[in-house]
Design a protein that fits this description.
The complex is a heterodimer of chains A (317) and B (143). With 317 residues, chain A is α+β, with helices and mostly antiparallel strands. Chain A folds into 2 domains: 2-111, Rossmann fold (3-Layer(aba) Sandwich); 130-194 and 241-296, Tumour Suppressor Smad4 (Sandwich). Chain A has helices spanning 10-28, 44-51, 65-74, 92-96, 102-110, 139-147, 149-154; strands at 2-6, 33-37, 58-63, 82-86, 113-122, 125-128, 130-134, 167-173, 177-183, 185-190, 205-208, 226-229, 246-254, 257-265, 267-272, 277-280, 283-287, 290-303. In chain A, the strands form 4 sheets. Chain A has a 6-stranded antiparallel beta sheet, with helices on both faces. Chain A has a 6-stranded antiparallel beta sheet with strand order 14-13-10-7-16-17. In chain A, strands 2-1-3-4 form a 4-stranded parallel beta sheet, with helices on both faces. In chain A, a hairpin with a 2-residue loop joins strand 5 and strand 6 (125-128). Chain B is of the alpha/beta class and 143 residues long. Chain B has one domain (4-114). Chain B has 2 helices and 15 strands. Chain B has helices at residues 4-8, 126-142; strands spanning 15-17, 22-29, 33-35, 38-45, 49-51, 56-63, 66-68, 71-73, 76-78, 81-84, 89-91, 94-96, 98-101, 106-108, 111-113. The chains are: A alpha+beta (317), B alpha/beta (143). At the A-B interface, strand 9, strand 11, strand 13 and strand 14 of A face helix 1, strand 1 and strand 2 of B. Strand 9 (177-183) of chain A pairs antiparallel with strand 2 of chain B. Chain B: Residues 109-143 are annotated as: Disordered. Chain B: It holds the Pfam family Bactofilin. Chain B: This is Polymer-forming cytoskeletal protein.
Chain lengths: 317, 143
């Protein structure tokens, strides 16, 4: 039997509109379930504790990003797999594991596949897959800055420039490495425990005949006078992967675009001269300064058959 | 060139220090390292190191292959190949199996090349070929 934890407010009260169809679909797939409505996300731990006994198949989260985060944090110590039935298109974790609609999610419950996802921790808060730290102003702040009469009188109001939204950040990785820059955004991803057997990092280096070695910025394209070569695959056993659990991507704006730096660590401490929100999906879970750890703990997620939980959409736009 | 998707993969072990980023400390990894910003400390990898044109490194480097288009202050030890490109400058001692310094590249320090005798393919000396030729010609005459 599955335990359905339903947030009726999610997706602009979408559950109310689709409840009948959902029940019909569940009956069609002969899925035994218990529906429990969440009145307040703060009550999720108590709700889980009181409703867990007859549940053996897993917990199904019906809601948005906030609901998913609340249930993950409440069920960390339980050994039950989690499934996500998204109530909105912005359900980040559902999208990242290949679930595009609530109908697909219900169908998945009939024949699920499981994927172990590593957990990360910020203070007492657990997270899965990826979090972001951004200095981006919200739309209202941008609008007010643009239309502020005093700034317009002084002639400095206007659309954002390349130097805007940069925050001086300092990142400490495992007490071994410190990185500092003016960043626009940071993305912290959890690395899987191991790379699939037999795989090795693809090795391609850009060598410029003009001696310019540009940053491997995804927006850069190789020019015709450059030689792109791919040395042969490394000899077996000659290159092992790093075991660092967290991958951090710094987005640093520049005149030519955005530069991306990639670093790895087990524990990151991030400090900034202005408070920056730490978000998972679209939910803010903390503010800088913050310490982020990659854990050996895992949570089991149900994923659609055949997807193997591979990322189906890029995490950043 | 790596695609956006490849960089998005959380299992990509490469390290990139972009322009405008300053890093200090010990960087030890199994993947490739590319530096276009500033790095000070110790750099150890089983992969390759690429120092971009804007890169500044104040560290000793130990890697499989090293390509330098920026500035390095420190010793460089490349197990295989070391290339100092046109805009590259190295202020330190270097050691490698193969070395390329392009026109414009600067090296201020000593260079040690590793012995590659064991890896050289065997080449037959010419006098043996000539002797073999002579022998076959004499046989032809006898016949």
């Amino acid at each position: 039997m599955y335990l359905f934890l339903i947030n009726p407010e999610a997706g602009n009260k979408r559950f109310v509109r689709i409840e009948k169809k959902m029940k019909q679909l569940l009956d069609q797939y002969k899925i035994k379930r218990r529906f429990v409505i969440i009145d307040d996300l703060a009550n999720v731990p108590a709700i889980v504790k009181h409703n867990l006994r007859p549940i053996d198949k897993g917990i199904v989260i019906v809601g948005g990003n906030a609901t998913v985060n609340a249930v993950i944090n409440a069920t960390v110590t339980e050994n039950l797999p989690l499934a996500i039935v998204p109530m909105s298109r912005t359900n980040y974790l559902a999208k990242s594991i290949g679930i595009k609609s609530w109908e697909q999610a219900i169908k998945m419950l009939a024949e699920p596949e499981f994927r172990a996802e590593r957990l990360g921790k910020i203070g007492k808060y657990y997270f899965v897959r990826q979090i972001a730290i951004t200095s981006r102003q919200n739309l209202l702040t941008k609008y007010l800055t643009r239309t502020n009469p005093i700034l317009r009188f002084l002639g400095i109001a206007g659309p954002g420039r390349a130097g805007d939204n940069q925050v001086t950040t300092k990142i400490l990785l495992d007490d071994e490495l410190s990185a500092s820059s003016k960043t626009q955004k940071l993305e912290i991803s959890l690395s899987p425990s191991q790379l699939p057997a037999g795989s090795s990092a693809p090795k391609s280096l850009l060598r410029a005949k003009s001696a310019q070695v540009p940053e491997t910025d995804p927006k850069n394209r190789p020019r015709s006078d450059k030689e792109v070569f791919q040395p042969g695959a490394p000899a077996e056993g000659s290159k092992k992967t790093t075991e660092k659990k967290l991958q951090i991507r710094l987005f640093v704006p520049s005149q030519t675009g955005t530069n991306i730096s990639l670093l790895h660590g087990n524990c990151l401490t991030i400090d900034s001269d202005k408070k920056m929100p730490v978000t998972m999906g679209n939910e803010t879970i903390a503010f800088t300064p913050v310490e982020i750890k990659g854990l050996s703990k895992h949570v089991r997620l149900m994923v659609p058959k055949g997807s193997n939980g591979e990322l189906t959409e890029p995490i950043t736009s | 060139m790596k695609t956006r998707g490849e960089f998005a993969e959380s299992d990509n072990p490469d390290t990139i220090i972009g322009y405008g980023v300053s890093v200090e400390g010990t960087l030890q990894t199994a993947g490739d390292i590319q530096i276009n910003g500033y790095f000070k400390g110790k750099l150890i990898t089983r992969g390759d190191v690429v120092i971009g044109e804007h890169g500044q490194v104040d560290a000793n480097i130990n890697a499989e292959n090293v390509y330098i288009a920026g500035e390095v202050t420190g010793n460089v030890n490349a197990i295989d190949k070391l290339e100092i490109l046109e805009t590259g400058k190295v202020d330190g001692n270097i050691s490698s199996t193969a070395l390329v310094i392009e026109s414009g590249g600067v090296l201020k320090g000593s260079s040690t090349m590793r012995d590659t005798e064991d890896t050289k393919p065997a080449v037959d000396p010419t006098y043996e070929v000539e002797e073999a030729k002579k022998a076959s010609e004499e046989e032809a005459v006898k016949v």
